[in-house]
Amino acid sequence: MSKKITIEPVTRVEGHGKVTIYMDEEAQVKESRLHIVEFRGFERFVQGRPYWEAPVLVQRLCGICPVSHHIAASKALDVIVGAGTGDGLTAVGEKMRRLMHYGQFFQSHVLHFFHLSSPDFLFGIDGDPALRNIVGVAQENRDLAVQGVMMRKFGQEVIRLTAGKKIHGTGAVPGGINKNLSIAERDELLKGPDPLNADKMVDWSLGALDFFKHYHKNNQAMVDNFADFPSNHLSIVRKDGALDIYNGVLRAVDAEGKRILDDVDCQDYNHYIEEEVRNWSYMKFPYLKHLGKEKGWYRVGPLARLNTCDFIPTPLAQKAFEEYKAYTHGKPDNMTLHYHWARLIEVLYAAESIRELLHDSDLQNEDLVVKGTKQHEGVGVIEAPRGTLFHHYKIDDNDLITMANLIVSTTNNNEPMNRAVNSTAKAFMNGQKDITEPMMNAVEVAIRAYDPCLSCATHALGQMPLEMTLVDAQNQILSHKMKS
Amino acid sequence: MVKTLLYGYGNPGRMDDGLGTSFVEDFQRWIEQEDIKNIHTDSNYQLNIEDAEKISAYESVIFVDASKEPIEQFSFTKVDAAKARVEFTMHAVSPAYVLYLCKDLFQKSPETYLLHIKGFEWDFKETLTPKAQENKNAAMQFLKQQIKQSDLQPSNH
Predict the structure, then answer these.
(1) What is the DSSP letter of B93?
(2) Contact, A25 vs A4, CB < 8 A?
């Protein structure tokens, strides 16, 4: 008798999702699907609104990555106000946005590692579920838990001082920014009381990276083989090939490192990327047009970024990058749990970039905004913490938005997340009759590696129990479990 | 009143999800009018782990949040750190969870309350429904009275 297992929602993933694993009559995993609710309605919601409202409106999408949407929308509107396609802002305009973005990146990655992933590393994926959370981390390694809290706080302070406020920040505007960084604000971040200063954040970032490397050394086979599969990788990179999360050209490589998208202009993204609709999922499946649906899907996020870039432009992160690349002999890294390794190198990169920028006197300049000849269409692409984020707008002669298209990071990772679930399900569930907590968590560990943000509103969808349903080939429920 | 933090959370771009942050904005104006020095306010999209450090600096904390629970207009309850549980999403980090982390990581244990205000709609708009507004006003009157009496007592309305 074949059966269907449903895990809903996925714990410790931003938002909610549902995993369905179809098993055949021999209790072998036949197919796995990750269902995610996505609010496509937002793109219609902004139609008819004045374009300058978009950087604030898009923060309604979710409370997890509002800064990423804020900056991506602002970059698209830079094009519309004639401020260029990424490099046309004033020095203070670009550097303040970068500082804001690095702050968001830092706090988002830190939350993911310390709060969501470190429990799996400390206790193992088959560890006691009562301990495998931040509370357990606090009991096992209090210093690590405190560091996670204080690093998050530092990142939030960077956002507050650059975006103006924590909710619906207004720091970025079409063509630039609405505030610079005062000397007092700079010193708050640069010379803040221990541990809330940039130097300590760099030190702790190195410590977090060492923590992962130590775990990897002792659990090499598991980390390297867990949900491992070859894939293409896509991100933006700086024109000289450096890692750049704010501005650049689109680059993609295949599993062997061959360039399959060769540094194309982000304004032309829709010439190269298509989105497939599948009847069982609300979320689309993007792929590279010229390779087709079967071969054109790709991964985004930390793993992909370190596979596409040639180097990292900060010294400590570059050193870590060289060690990381040596592990795969310079070839792309296709190991799913190495997302965590790559993410922690990016934490270090963000911390170093914040510290470097704080020493830059351009942040105190007064020329905040530039404008040129108005355009009717613009594309903004950034690397959000979870991966490449596309914002595309068209406006009419009355400055009202007539079209909006967003491809969010989690959508870009839709196909690889499904493959990761399937790979894990086959490794842990083949031949099994009963579903155990470690098995369920193994599937979740695979998904968590991608740090998906399943957009939601705090109260509309945020509070749901964990539900597991077992259904046979005749759609009869064999068993149903609820975890609350 | 002891040194107190009033902390609202939710996304004001999702209609009644913004009840907590709207409440805190209104309350801040009242605090300024009354020249109350020992009550501070803050707000954010959601609670998160760094809030454990924030509340460690206060003797009393009042979280304010929208609610879908079957309450009438609002409820005012004491938060018990012992009831902290593993959360399913980061959006749902609870006051109990924050208090637990505060006790565990920072060895501080502020008296903590949750003011839950009933909300009704959660669409992409930056406005409260009239019924949510009414509930917010009722909760406002209740909390002002409690603070004037310097006596925070759990209550349901």
Answers:
(1) -
(2) no
Cβ within 8 Å, pair A149-B68: no
Q: Residue B43 has what DSSP assignment? A: E
Amino acid at A451: D
Task: Find, in chain B, the residue whose alpha carbon is nearest to that of A458.
Answer: B91
pLDDT along chain A (484 residues), means of 10: 54 55 80 68 83 86 80 96 92 98 95 83 75 74 89 94 84 95 97 94 96 92 91 98 98 98 97 89 88 97 98 98 98 95 98 98 97 95 95 96 91 91 84 73 82 51 42 57 47
Do A29 and A103 have their domain in common? no
- Residue B66's φ and ψ, nearest 5 degrees, are -75, 155
B119 three-state secondary structure: coil
> How far apart, in whole angstroms, are the C-alpha atoms of residue B10 and residue A82?
35
Domain housing B23: 4-156
Distance CA A158, CA A131 (A): 32
B44–A166 C-beta distance less than 8 A: yes
pTM (two decimals): 0.90
Q: Is B2 on the interface with A (CB under 8 A)?
A: no
- Compute the count of residue pairs across chains A and B with CB atoms less than 8 Å apart: 132
Report the C-alpha dihedral over residues B123, B127, B128, B129, rounded to 10 degrees: -70
Q: How far is A249 from chain B (nearest CA, A)?
A: 32
**CA closest to B119 among chain A residues:** A459
**Domain at B53, CATH number:** 3.40.50.1450
Q: Do B50 and A114 touch (CB under 8 A)?
A: no
Number of domains within chain B: 1
Identify from A65, A159, A459 which residue to disrupt to test chain B contact, counting B C-beta atoms within 10 A and taking the largest count: A459
| Residues A353 and A452 grouped into a single domain | no
User: Does A41 reach chain B within 8 Å, measured CB to CB?
Assistant: yes
- Residue A33's CB is within 10 A of a number of other CB atoms, namely 17
